[in-house]
Specification:
92 residues; alpha+beta; two-stranded antiparallel sheet; two-stranded antiparallel ribbon; 2 helices; 27% strand; rod-shaped
């Protein structure tokens, strides 16, 4: 991502180093969320419906949300999961 840097080293959102730290925080959060969803889906990959389709699948992303970190507020898009499993107690 390119940024406009003023002569004093600042950007519209603070210093350049602050922007780099916020971008790193955003990427780490996004990577952690992706890993969590991938693990969840992999654990349930063997659960299928009557015609062989997986009951738990990826389904795009949620709307972006702002998360406040020590580096400042960053925008993160969390992956969505479509879970079609039905609990036996819920079905009754």
């Amino acid at each position: 991502m390119l940024s406009v840097v003023n002569e004093d080293g600042s950007t519209p959102n603070g210093s350049l180093i602050d922007e780099i730290v916020r971008e790193g925080a955003r990427r780490m959060l996004a990577t952690a969320l992706e890993a969590e969803v991938n693990t969840y889906i992999a654990e349930l990959a063997d659960q299928r419906d009557d015609i062989g389709r997986r009951l738990v699948v990826r389904n795009g992303y949620h709307q972006p949300r702002n998360v406040t970190t020590a580096a400042g507020t960053v925008e993160v898009k969390a992956p969505r999961v479509n879970d079609k499993r039905i609990e036996k107690t819920a079905a009754a």
